[in-house]
Amino acid sequence: MVHTGQPETQPGRPLLAVLSLSTLGFTLMFAVWLMFGVLGIPIRKEFGLTDVQLSWLSAVAILNGSIWRLLTGILTDRYGGRTVFTLMLLFTAFPAYLVSQAGSYRELLLYAFLVGFAGNSFSVGIAWNSAWFPRGQQGFALGVFGAGNVGASVTKFIGPAIIASVPVAGYFGGLVPGGWRFVPFLYAVLLVLMGLAMWFFAPRADKKPGQGRPFLEMLKPLRYLRVWRFSLYYIVVFGAYVALAAWLPKYYVDVFGLPLYQAALLTALFIFPASLLRPVGGYLSDRFGARRVMYWTFGGMLLSTLILSMPNGHIVLYLPTKYEADGMREVMRYTMTVWPFTALVFLVGISMGVGKAAVYKHIPEYFPKDVGAVGGMVGLLGALGGFFLPPMFAYTQAWTGLPQTTFLILFLLTLASAIWMHLTVLSLLQKAAPQLEHKFEYQAER
To answer: Which domains does the chain have, with CATH numbers?
Structure first.
């Protein structure tokens, strides 16, 4: 290390700058990425969209926020987070502005796809912070950065108020659009400002652990099966989080008949624990182990999604007419009201928030030199889950007529992940102690 004559506390300042700027930038980009969760309601009204059309509007944004995560993670390792993050912020500002100017559903689909590029900022921040922070601090740093997921709630809070307060005609003769269109316009301005802040305040002497390494060499870790297993875990805790963050406002409006602002606030009760508990998940993973935390995560999600997937209804018993005049008796009436529903969704959010950190705790442990590539692939496949799930929610609801199928899908996905993890753990235990493979009962020595 070159001596600069600076005080001993100086090296900590670049780390703080990288963590704070990347977290702020990621929070903003995440808000932009998932803004259609709230904007979709007035957009549906203005353009006369069906639920399936509306689901694709969110899905295409999630798609483009997924497919480039591997590439952007590798580019960050090679060229540094300061350069890559700044360029992403400035690029995303342009389609954000175009969303505010869309005049048809086709235009909205195109611009939603382009603005969805914001979602790829996650792999940039993961690789950037992993390069700067020592191993003993990576869990906490990645947890703090990952808490930027709370950006999903930004639009939930400001969106309804802005839509209600800004005139539809806008300001300055329509130069500044009004109504729901003001939200993407505002984000476009903020993205430019954040990009400038990233460029001028991030450390100029950036860390580039992948500099000079051949591209194909950086892809070699992807051949390991555990990378794909981690990706499935991340679909459960992150892909499903993204899908629910976009889907829940519509669910509250359609199923419980709530106004948009109440639906947005209740959705935030899911988003907050699913985002802000990520540092807690990192701490618990450091202390108790990532696998144990994943067992807790899957257990909480299985319990809550199983209850949420139960449809409203009752059981009909056919009895002799001497007991019932019409020969039928209704028993076991069940109706999920809004507050028990919100409490269970809150539990899902807690499980996801803790689980997201536990998944990424594995990556620097198994692949310390390839966080960009492995973290990018895990993030890519996890976020792709957020792309596929909203259309699956819409199609299964249209097919069955039951909105609760949303949570049945999540239950089955979580169950598959939990089974795979448990079988892997059993396999590891058998390899560690093969002599105990077929011994199920304890026998004391005589």
So the answer is: 12-431 (1.20.1250.20)
